[in-house]
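Summary of Year 1 activities. Much of the first year was spent building the evaluation harness for sequence design. The harness presents a backbone, in tokenized form, and records the residue chosen at every position. We chose the following record to illustrate the format because it has been used consistently in internal testing since the harness was completed.
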């Protein structure tokens, strides 16, 4: 039996229940029967995840590839500029 008044910050009092009955182990009843249920989905999908949205197959990903190339070239160019400026501060070429 646990009691609480619903207000936060109050203590909860737990009183253990005592029992005078003895426990007995359950008797074996024999083999259990397996229950088979009908599937909830009429047609089980096969293969990968079917979200219902397919990518456009006839449009190649040239825009994504071009964006990746611009980012890679920009980072390489930025690295060279930083290296050049650091060398200029150090008095080198």
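For this record, the design step produced the sequence shown next.
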């Amino acid at each position: 039996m646990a009691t609480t008044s619903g207000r936060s910050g109050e203590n909860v009092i737990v009183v253990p229940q005592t029992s005078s009955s003895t426990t007995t182990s359950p008797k074996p009843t024999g083999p259990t029967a397996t229950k088979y249920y009908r599937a909830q989905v009429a047609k089980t999908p096969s293969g990968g995840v079917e979200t219902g949205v397919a990518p456009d197959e006839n449009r190649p990903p040239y825009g994504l590839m071009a964006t990746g190339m611009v980012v890679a070239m920009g980072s390489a160019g930025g690295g060279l500029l930083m290296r050049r400026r650091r060398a200029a501060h150090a008095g080198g070429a």
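The helical segments are 62-90. Quantitative recovery figures across the full test set are reported in Table 2.
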